[in-house]
Amino acid sequence: MLPVLLVLVLAAVNPCISDDDISVDKPKPTPTPYHDWDYIVYSQRWPITGCSQWKEKSPKNTCNLPQDNSTWVVHGLWPTKTGQKGPLFCPSALHFDPEQLRPVMKEMQDFWPNVEANTKPDSFWKHEWGKHGTCAASLPVLNSVINYFKKGLEWNQQYKISALLAKSKIVPNPQGYNISEIYQAVRSATGKNPIVQCVVDEKKQSLISEIQICFDKTLDLIHCNVTGALPDGEILTDCSRKKDVMYFATVPNNASLELEFDEFFGDHEPSIDTCIENYYLERELLKVYRLIKFLMWFTL
Ligand SMILES: *[C@@H]1O[C@H](CO)[C@@H](O)[C@H](O)[C@H]1NC(C)=O
Ligand SMILES: *[C@@H]1O[C@H](CO)[C@@H](O)[C@H](O)[C@H]1NC(C)=O
Ligand SMILES: *[C@@H]1O[C@H](CO)[C@@H](O)[C@H](O)[C@H]1NC(C)=O
Ligand SMILES: *[C@@H]1O[C@H](CO)[C@@H](O)[C@H](O)[C@H]1NC(C)=O
């Protein structure tokens, strides 16, 4: 009971964690009451971490991993209204049909794969379109299914996360990296402040999970801290600052990621200004979260 209560508290205060988990059947999506937006959060995932999370949920789960073991894959383009999450699930006459992606199917499979392999074919793309693409489509350049996905593929080539990180000598390894190093690597390669997200495993390791960069409506790269300057030395992340963050090359055997961090926090899209506000609180709560995780494990 105590953990449940604490989890609710955590859910109420942490909007920074994106939960775009398509692998779980969710209740009927609730559209946001607003459809307008100010900027796009472009999210890429480290598929190794995604796969670890997925396999942990069930030993039967399988993954689609890119052939090129260095590829960070697209998660999605998320239109965002300043200070809000979303808009999400906008009314739209444009319906997703995988046929529309035929011209780019090979690229979709290589760079925007559904890592969670044993789910309905195309469910990931359909989800991204319904939740985010329908809202993005108000921008002429993203006004169709194919244009939305093509832009995601294009940015994946233009902003290759593994290459950006490698410029600062950050490559997958078993030891991990200080989150500041990872953050600064992306910042110095792009010139803008990104968002870096992690999941926490039951060994209390922080595993790198998503790196997000932000674009304005002219599709120019912007700082993800759209509503205010970042305090000196501050970074936009939910990753551990006390321990090195893991950037594994391969999915560990018997992946032991139990409950992923964002499952705890519910269906939240990033909202960076709130993230900054809640940043200090969050750090404290993260400790509590880890304690809960430990206790839950301990009492099983
Ligand atoms: C974001 O933070 C940086 C400092 O890291 C600052 O230079 C920039 O002006 C901030 N962006 C906005 C829109 O406030
Ligand atoms: C990471 O680097 C920052 C800045 O250099 C430092 O304050 C922090 O203690 C380091 N964290 C770890 C886990 O070493
Ligand atoms: C990725 O694959 C290449 C070529 O097969 C191999 O040399 C390299 O060690 C692999 N890298 C990782 C991180 O597994
Ligand atoms: C993984 O788990 C299985 C079953 O629980 C066990 O038989 C196997 O030895 C484990 N493998 C590793 C590498 O720990």
Number of strands: 7
Number of helices: 10
CATH architecture: Alpha-Beta Complex
Instruction: Report the sheet with the most strands, covering strand number, pairing sense and barrel closure.
Output: 7 strands, mixed
Name the CATH superfamily assignment: Ribonuclease T2-like
Q: Could you name the CATH topology? A: Ribonuclease Rh, Chain A
Distance from first to last alpha carbon: 14 Å
Helix content: 25-40%
- The secondary-structure class comes to alpha+beta
Shape: globular
N-to-C series of helices and strands? HEHEHHHHEHEEEEHHH
Number of domains: 1
Which parts are unreliable, with pLDDT below 50 for 5 consecutive residues or more? 3-19, 21-25, 256-281, 295-300
**Overall radius of gyration:** 18 Å
CATH level 1 name? Alpha Beta
Mean pLDDT: 83
Which molecules other than protein and nucleic acid are bound?
A: 2-acetamido-2-deoxy-beta-D-glucopyranose
Q: Hey, roughly how much beta strand do the residues contain?
A: 5-15%
Draw up the topology in text.
Layout: H1 2-13, E1 39-45, H2 47-57, E2 73-80, H3 105-111, H4 123-136, H5 145-158, H6 161-167, E3 173-177, H7 179-190, E4 195-200, E5 206-215, E6 221-222, E7 245-247, H8 261-265, H9 272-277, H10 279-299
Parallel strand pairs: 5-7
Antiparallel strand pairs: 1-2, 1-5, 3-7, 4-5, 5-6
Helix pairs in contact: 1-10, 6-7
The protein binds 2-acetamido-2-deoxy-beta-D-glucopyranose (4 copies).
Active site: 75, 128, 132
Main location: endoplasmic reticulum
Subcellular location: Endoplasmic reticulum lumen; Lysosome; Secreted
